[in-house]
Amino acid sequence: MTQRMLSIIIVGARGRMGTALIREVMDSEDMTLGACVDRSGGPGIGQDAGRLAGGPDIGVLVTDELRPRRGSVVVDFSLPNATEARIRACVEQGIPLIIGTTGLSEEDDKLLVEAGQSIPIVYAANFSVGVTLLLQLAGVAAAALGPDWEAELFELHHRFKRDAPSGTALRIGQAVADATGRKFSEAVMTDRASLRRAREKQEIGVFGLRGGDSPGEHTLMFLGEGERIELTHRAGDRAIFARGALRAARWAASQPPGLYDMVDVLGLRE
Ligand code: NAD
């Protein structure tokens, strides 16, 4: 059998997601670990990727320089501090990019759209298959229920998460706003403490809780007169995001340039 192995370059290799990705690549039959990158001057540099992921040495040492190579896909789950440089490096070499890092700036978002003209990029605030479906269900439910039902959502993540509310929660808010003809910037409300007034009809409350070790829980409520619908997704293990991101990497390797998300990867785009 001469199956071509897909080479994966992991950015943020020493992190919680990076090490989950290393384990998934090592366990796969169609992927190899091309390189592992982490923050310059950080404790991961020079360490063996296998050992970082809790296994034996595999001879791939973590470096601080991203050098995308043909035939590989870059998978970035790090911090948004140098996203621009990483996107530009992939564009220069024509390498597909999977980006799971959340909390990107507006400039980064614009650069992603531009970069999507020349390389395939899959960018998702949440690579879980279940959450991708939740996003779809949120839009369907919001459109079907109409303006008399109020939508509110909350999320819970582990104590180390830096951005709040989560990128996923904001995406769910966006799905509800889009499905009901509301503008995200006007409808989504992430802080009510200073308002001192009752909620307005068009608001979509989006709130983050932090603590413990949960990899992520999201609950969207539709609140009607005398009844309530709750849609909840609970991630039990961050391996689900790693598996989703690698599914996206396999898919992106044979796609034309474009800015995609998990809806495209799962073939759910209408
Ligand atoms: P973490 O803090 O455990 O790991 C981040 C890693 O990135 C660290 O090893 C850090 O040294 C490294 N890093 C920081 N700056 C870097 C740089 N300039 N170049 C290379 N590496 C750099 O965080 P985590 O829990 O693994 O999460 C990483 C990111 O992924 C966060 O933005 C998080 O919100 C996001 N995330 C996304 C999904 C999703 O499905 N999209 C799921 C989980 C986490």
From TrEMBL:
InterPro entries, sorted: DapB_C, DapB_N, DapB_N_CS, DHDPR_bac, NAD(P)-bd_dom_sf
Pathways per UniProt: Amino-acid biosynthesis; L-lysine biosynthesis via DAP pathway; (S)-tetrahydrodipicolinate from L-aspartate: step 4/4
- Domain Dihydrodipicolinate reductase N-terminal: start-end pairs: 7-127
Query: What Gene Ontology biological process does one annotation of this record name?
Result: lysine biosynthetic process via diaminopimelate
The residues that hold (S)-2,3,4,5-tetrahydrodipicolinate are 158, 167-168
Could you say which EC number(s) this protein's record lists? 1.17.1.8
Enzyme class of the recorded protein, top EC level: oxidoreductase
Q: Where in the cell is it found?
A: Cytoplasm
Assembly and interaction partners: Homotetramer.
Q: Name one Pfam family in it.
A: DapB_N
As for family, the record states: Belongs to the DapB family.
From the Swiss-Prot or TrEMBL record, give the protein name: 4-hydroxy-tetrahydrodipicolinate reductase
Report the active site residues.
Answer: 157, 161
Q: What does this protein do?
A: Catalyzes the conversion of 4-hydroxy-tetrahydrodipicolinate (HTPA) to tetrahydrodipicolinate.
UniProt entry keywords in alphabetical sequence: Amino-acid biosynthesis, Cytoplasm, Diaminopimelate biosynthesis, Lysine biosynthesis, NAD, NADP, Oxidoreductase
| One GO CC term on file | cytoplasm
Residues bound to NADP(+) are 51
- Does the record carry Oxidoreductase as a key word? yes
Catalytic reactions of this protein: (S)-2,3,4,5-tetrahydrodipicolinate + NADP(+) + H2O = (2S,4S)-4-hydroxy-2,3,4,5-tetrahydrodipicolinate + NADPH + H(+); (S)-2,3,4,5-tetrahydrodipicolinate + NAD(+) + H2O = (2S,4S)-4-hydroxy-2,3,4,5-tetrahydrodipicolinate + NADH + H(+)
Residue positions binding NAD(+):
12-17, 100-102, 124-127
Annotated Dihydrodipicolinate reductase C-terminal domain ranges read: 130-266
